[in-house]
Records
---
Amino acid sequence: MVTTHNLGFPRIGQRRELKFALEGYWKGELSEDNLQQTAAGLRASNWRHQRPLTLAPVGDFSLYDQVLDMSATLGNLPKRSGKADDHELDRYFRIARGRSPADNDCCGVHAGEMTKWFDTNYHYIVPEFDADTRFSLNSTRLLEQLAEARAVGVNAKPAIIGPVTYLWLGKSKDDTDRLSLLDDLLPVYAELLQLLADNGAEWVQIDEPILVTELGGDWRHALNLAYHNLKASPVKLLLTTYFGQLRENLQLACELPVAGLHLDATNARDEVSRVTDWLPGHKVLSLGVIDGRNIWKTDLQTTLDWLEPVYQKLQERLWIAPSCSLLHVPVDLNNETTMDPEIRSWLAFARQKLEELQLLATALTDGQNAVARELKSNADAILSRRNSTRVTDPQVRKAVAAITPELGRRKSSYKHRSAIQASHLQLPRYPTTTIGSFPQTKDIRQTRLKFRKGELAPEEYHERIRAEIRHCVEEQEQLGLDVLVHGEAERNDMVEYFGEQLEGYVFSRFGWVQSYGSRCVKPPILFGDISRPKAMTVEWIRYAQSLTDKPLKGMLTGPVTILNWSFVRDDQPRKDTCLQLALAIRKEVLDLEQAGVNIIQIDEAALREGLPLRQSDWQTYLDWAIEAFRITSNGVKDDTQIHTHMCYSEFNDIIEAIARMDADVITIETSRSDMELLDAFKGFQYPNDIGPGVYDIHSPNVPGTEQIVSLMNKAAERIPAERLWINPDCGLKTRSWEEVIPALRGMVAAARELREA
Ligand code: GLN
Ligand code: ZN
């Protein structure tokens, strides 16, 4: 039998049990025992689902984050978490979530920094290092869970983050070279592997996903050093890579002295034959043949067609698995009882993916006849998806084929049109505005929920949303803001709202995926060609505009962000999907313009996070992403002012692409960086208007007028004052009106002061 295994299973639970247990515990409503019971229950149930596998992962479960778990295992929780003999779970959550001074008799603790896990939407807690960092083993969690797994009756394979990737993921808090810590780190890994062996582990999955990134010579050297050092360990190491191709690291990955290598064969199919050639004869090759990042059924026949010859060649040296941990997909499709059955038949969530794996293994070992019926039903589903008229819309195809560069070009240059806009809009210097959303009160959420459940008639719902818009516009007028917004009360989420109104999308009910800690997202599923049957936002925005003489800014989400925050189809390049989205949103832009909306903001919050892992692939992505944005935004007349917004601040390496978007105004996050981030714009001589955020909406702190004036003065040292706007860092939907009013009042006062200066 071909060996089957899994790299990780979703831990949040099919009904988000872990989320609710964690949040209950944090609020003090649930005891630690109860929390641990829920966690143990989830682990046991996850292992039961994985019992058919030859090897199931242990240590993939986490109460918050697997990288933070590794920090705890290596005795590297930051000192501010508390003393070594403090309550362990307290120390852990202090770093996971921070602690405010109010919760505590002495002082606050700031949380560990959070950042994206490679190119996924999962966020991990960044390990912290300094010159004093010393590692020491705390193996309790892994050993306990190893015993639990065995009690459930799985063949357990501990899964840990490898030493070099661990250092790579972290940040040095002084100028200590992270690699200088390797010497101290390796003995702790050796000790851990020994203990795992003593406790019966035969194989250990050791993740080194940095092997799919561009590595400097020092990091490649560190990998060599580390694995030569761990060679003596009594367990067999499965060196595990995922999320991409090995490329220039292929030979290195094949040659490191371990017992096996896992390759992401969904991304690196082309490398399989080179790897089989390079890999020494005593090593196992694990192929990730099922996409762990997407929700589509695997085409089993096609997979078998290329896998069978590999099996012929490698025989029992071939293992199969999902491409990466299944953390990035929802748990169980069987819960989706209300989803359109045809589309559901094309999908596979974590449990279904493991069933596919089992089928592949049986077909390889016992021949395809052994699973003929299952293969037939898989082939039917694949065919039904391929041929469905719901997937392909000839008109959309035609429109995409007819795209010309003109479609993405404004009529005139920024200089020319900004003069026209200035005379039209008559805005003062340092115009003030917001990013779009205003507080999403309990009432608003109730209203939307009731409407969804059919408890509120459409007319009643519309009247309530109009009332929210009226309130929001009145508040903004009273504050004296210059460019108003409608407040986004009708939107649950900036992507889902549009997805629901576009053809080509379906929605799951329980398709939650962990984003960080207890937070989950439910990405909409983009399955077909995208079109916009009718206007999506015009009614609300026109209504808002009718309430005020001030210019009102219409609010849309851009194509790149919609793409990056959805599960998207795997049967065409992302670029093609993005262009379809661009054409659909472009229609909305033109309808808004037609309706008399003179300022339109197109949010691209997720543009940066779509960047490929390797910098050498960036340009290709940026080229089509920027093209998609331009197609969306640039069909308007000179007098229409296009804004875009991005809620991050690292622009250094993408500034040229940002400039190519040619938005008249860009609003960005900057308040926490003291405006230093504008240096990128200054250095590039970025030509258009910029609104650097002056109010950190992630914090309950209300900035004072003086602070805002000082920030804007710093901004004006970098960008000519006549091109500066004043606005918060991001939308205000998570804040309360009590916080928002004084903050915006301070902002408006700061603008007045700056104009008089
Ligand atoms: N317009 C959106 C809002 O204000 C933008 C959100 C975002 O950038 N994440 O909420
Ligand atoms: Zn934002």
---
Amino acid sequence: MAGHRHDAKDQQLEHDRTDSTEPLTTDTGVRVEDTDNSLRAGARGPTLLEDFHTREKITHFDHERIPERVVHARGAGAYGRFTPYEGLGDLTAAHFLSSSDVTTPVFVRFSTVAGSRGSADTPRDVRGFAVKFYTEQGNYDLVGNNMPVFFIQDGIKFPDFVHALKPQPHNEIPQAQSAHDTLWDFVGMQPETMHMMMWLMSDRAIPRSYRMMQGFGVHTFRFVNAEGRGTFVKFHWKPLLGTHSLVWDEAQRVQGKDPDFNRRDLWDSIERGEHPEWELGVQLVDEADEHAFDFDLLDPTKLVPEEQVPVRPIGRLVLDRNPDNFFAETEQVAFHTANVVPGIDFTNDPLLQARNFSYLDTQLLRLGGPNFQQIPVNRPVAPVSNNQRDGFAQHRVHRGGTSYAQNSLGGGCPVTAGEGVFRHYTERVAGEKIRERSASFGDHYSQATLFYNSLADWEREHLLEAFRFELGKCEELSVRQKVVAHLNHVDHGLAVEVAEGVGVAAPDTEETPNHGRSSPALSQDNSATGDITGRQIALLAADGVDASDAEALRARFAEEHAHVEYLGTRDGALHTRDGGVLTANRSMKTVGSVVYDAVIVVGGPDSVAELGKDGLARHFVTEAFKHHKAVLLAADGRRIVEGTPLAGRFPGAAETTRTTEGVVLAPAVDDESVAEFLRIVKSHRHWDRETSSVPA
Ligand code: HDD
């Protein structure tokens, strides 16, 4: 297993790992001689009740399942480490942020929200980004998402929101999809959802990879330093690989070609030693500036524009070790927003307050009782010492005769400490007991507009298409109409275009004028970092392929930690043009262009002629083109487009390398054409390409 071992958490887990190398036994350790035949009365007779091995084996199997998470059921996780760039003692008493010499083990779980545990990885959905820091002062959980705001302002609505989002109760349709009447009915009834719906309809909802997602703590939290001074803080995770997405048509197809697309990508990258990294950043707001914004810092449907409060980078997260067992670790990991350490505290955000109840509550059901913190993945590396006792599956053997405080008989143990303790932030609160929301939470549209204004043209185009797709799936025209009415407060032009796409009346007049403000940091457009680690590039090949060209490309991309895979018209050995052999990594039949980032076709003539006869190969190139991917057609490879819907699109194949619509056409695989193709791959996708007419 690749990865970084021997941090404090890893050492602790070592005691729990088991390899089943001993001969087969029952759960009580009794050796078993035969596990294929139950004990019967005669070879053809009934099975006997006294066959404890059969009964135990089947009973255990019958009890293997636990309730899946009510939301975020589908996920993937990994271990890693977090190191701050510098000590932040002036801001927070948190030890794990106290010095660049402190490295803290972490477990991170990424997830989709709506789908069941067995659903696909690439629906249009929010992605969870939950980080458990095993700090020396106890576990700290930062349970965030890949979008910086949330659907609702008060946790009391969460059950309603989730009921609306999840499959409908009478027929459990649709699975893992927001495109249905009940969600959009909820949205129509709750304008506070509009800002988040803009994010959900943007490409953020279909990340290319967990490694290429931003993460956000969403709420405003509070740093508290040793003197008890508080500072408001918003948390941001920024991926070193940039923030990149799939396109919607591709995302839908990936669900069939590889439902484990994001999970596999995370796993494989860690196994290959290409460890995903994020930078943690914070936006800090002095308490004195609490009311300096035109929104409420306690409102989780709002973000703090980075142009107003810059993000200060404070540390680095690296994921470097896959779990040993999915169920034991990724399934049983229990996050909880109230798992905080000294130096980090809450605010009165009503969504956060509800979460602080919900997460503990859900783990009690999901993990079967109050001892879930003793499950290996959840166990802190900090010592645990208290009078909590008993309960189902108690694993500790507490010694001594006293389990209460205060006691004198047990020497007063465990005593309360004076130092390193969690002290709740001293905040003066006063108010009527009242079910009412602050008027400062009342603006539901301005930031939705801000987000819309901040997008690049292609992002806006995708967002429009997403609204049309989703609302177009709603059966009730009244639902479509209501959402359009809300969009008219966000941007009139958008509302009209959505309405036209989904067959409802477009609003005649502008409801709320677009304020024209934007925040460039909200766009994914400029996020490419040039780091293409882990990108998958398909090279299509048949008998007669120019092996030296293929190998040159593979070698060059390997330098960038990107992977050129040879996809053959069949699996195994291909005869090369120069009489050698090139081994295909896979047969084209087992994959599809949608699981690759770019595609290459090189010569020689026989290989290209054979590929040209193969519908799959022609479709592969056309589909990659449709999904805006980088394409290199070199030497005879340029002829692959003949007989595809792309024929005639690149007239006059020139004698020099040239790029048309993100397709590199080159007379040869040489330094120039490879460099040009690399440049195109690094830009992630070529958006200035008209693809709506391409049938693929
Ligand atoms: Fe939640 C899981 C993120 C609001 C109640 N949530 C869960 C997970 C993530 C989030 C990443 C998966 C954790 C894991 O991998 O195990 N949730 C968020 C964010 C929110 C949010 C960023 C808003 C800012 N959640 C939210 C509210 C409530 C919940 C308002 C309830 C009042 N969330 C839950 C839960 C889950 C959960 C029911 C399901 C499984 C679990 O907790 O462990 O308690």
